[in-house]
Amino acid sequence: MSLVRVHNFSISLDGYGTGEGQSLESPFGHAADRLHRWFFGTRTFRRMQGREGGGTGVDDAMARTWADGIGAEIMGRNKFGPQRGPWQDEDWKGWWGSNPPFHTPVFVLTHHPRPSVEMEGGTVFHFIDATPEEALRQAREAAGGKDVRIGGGPRTVRAFLEADLIDHLHVVVVPIVLGRGESLWAGLEGLEERFDSEAVAGPSGVTHLTFTRRGTA
Amino acid sequence: MSLVRVHNFSISLDGYGTGEGQSLESPFGHAADRLHRWFFGTRTFRRMQGREGGGTGVDDAMARTWADGIGAEIMGRNKFGPQRGPWQDEDWKGWWGSNPPFHTPVFVLTHHPRPSVEMEGGTVFHFIDATPEEALRQAREAAGGKDVRIGGGPRTVRAFLEADLIDHLHVVVVPIVLGRGESLWAGLEGLEERFDSEAVAGPSGVTHLTFTRRGTA
């Protein structure tokens, strides 16, 4: 069965998955890198960058499950880049350089479709104007029976949770108070009723929460 | 040194320390008992009720530190009871029966002072209209050199955090999304800069976060 999964989704104590004031210089706004420092220390992250070393404890173990069995990703346009509205610059190909870490088809949700972009290493960006259900249908087809990852940002994850399309949700609670930004939890009252949850703290100070849809475990 | 401490303060994933619609029948509003179920299973809670049994794992270890070394409590009026505005019913003596679990002076913050109420077992409720700083001055005097506990609710804890008067903060994050209620974190952006923090998950599914003011450890 092809599952829909969210991994390594970092939020602050007050539930924000990104800060305010996102821009080319500050992809996470005033949150800067504070939501993701736990990840930079992991072996998984180092490998993505072609580097050695990094921790191999619980933070790494949780981070590592990110790519396993994934056949496609769906992401919001704000994760893909800082532009809003009609595309001013079609040369923009994401934050990740010529060989992005996805290595699968990636469906970017946008009200402004544009031609697909093929990158090195198997990543192909498709730009679609679609509901969560329709985006998932296309991603599943492209994934060839494998799982689909919902890559964020917060608004995109929230939309898929609202539509009850997520089977596995891994949230990393970072012990900071951002005060403002984009909330993961807004509008999701009672979410826990659809999931079994588990919590484990890492020595980096973050807490890994996993939500597994009841009936899929 | 007399410290100011918060213990066993439960919040939802979205940061609410109480639900919406608090009343005599529902002291925590629509949250009902969901924020405190982890506590009911502990030996500490059973003992408070004069009962035996209960778990003795990490949830209990964290809960148990609640009373140790405390000489006075400060609480908001909404923790004391469901009445708002001028007191209609001075016979109301709190939710806790004739022998409340505090066993110390308790300062209830209210814009409507009333005569103090002496209970069995050493608890005396004082009703004062005071700033956090002034309330703490009175509580410290009554505590005779011991620590002062800030007992909640969320608005009261927040006011003391805003005034930077808290030395030790123990928050219990419960894996539920309440969606609405009284937020603990609102207005506290950057709180973590003043504290060292630690996280540990309990088998009940909650995460215990402790914040220790830098310089007091």
From TrEMBL, chains A, B:
Against InterPro entries, the record matches this protein to: DHFR-like_dom_sf, RibDG_C, Riboflavin_Biosynth_HTPR
- Which Gene3D superfamilies does this UniProt record tie to the protein? Dihydrofolate Reductase, subunit A
> What is the organism field in this record?
Kitasatospora aureofaciens (Streptomyces aureofaciens)
Where is each Bacterial bifunctional deaminase-reductase C-terminal domain found?
8-187
Question: Annotated Gene Ontology MF terms?
Answer: 5-amino-6-(5-phosphoribosylamino)uracil reductase activity
What is the protein name for this chain?
Answer: Deaminase
Which biological process annotations from GO are given for this protein?
riboflavin biosynthetic process
What SUPFAM superfamilies does the record point to?
Dihydrofolate reductase-like
Q: Which domain of life is it from?
A: Bacteria
